Amino acid sequence: MTPSTQLDSLSALFEHLRDGSLSPHEFSRQARLFESLLSALPSAFREVLSQLLDRLESSALFSEESCSFSQQGLIDHLQVWIDKARGRLA
């Protein structure tokens, strides 16, 4: 798969995360498999995505009130990451 194809696949998975049909843990697991995409982007993209995914997984373990970061906020940041990755690959 090309980096662009992997980004399209990641975007589709992200929509499933957003609509609740994919768990944060499963999204995170699958997102980490897109090596071609991550290799095509600057290393900072890998680092930021990894941090976002770690936080997303952690936030799924707690209710919104007991977690130090908002799951919705993390989802919003993942959208920004996807948009910036798309711009970088263009």
Shape: globular
Number of domains: 1
What integer is the average pLDDT? 91
Radius of gyration: 13 Å
Number of continuous helical runs: 5
Main sheet: strands, sense, barrel: none
Instruction: State the total count of DSSP E strands.
Output: 0
Low-confidence stretches: none
Question: How are the secondary structure elements laid out?
Answer:
Blueprint: H1 3-19, H2 24-31, H3 35-40, H4 43-60, H5 71-89
Helix pairs in contact: 1-2, 1-5, 2-4, 4-5
What report would you give on this structure?
This protein has 90 residues and is an all-alpha fold. The protein has one domain (3-89). It has helices at residues 3-19, 24-31, 35-40, 43-60, 71-89. Helix 1 packs antiparallel against helix 2 (24-31) and helix 2 runs antiparallel to helix 4. The mean pLDDT is 91.
Question: Keywords, please?
Answer:
5 helices; 90 residues; mainly alpha; globular; 76% helix
How would you sum up this structure in a few lines?
The protein has 90 residues and is mainly α. The chain has helices spanning 3-19, 24-31, 35-40, 43-60, 71-89.
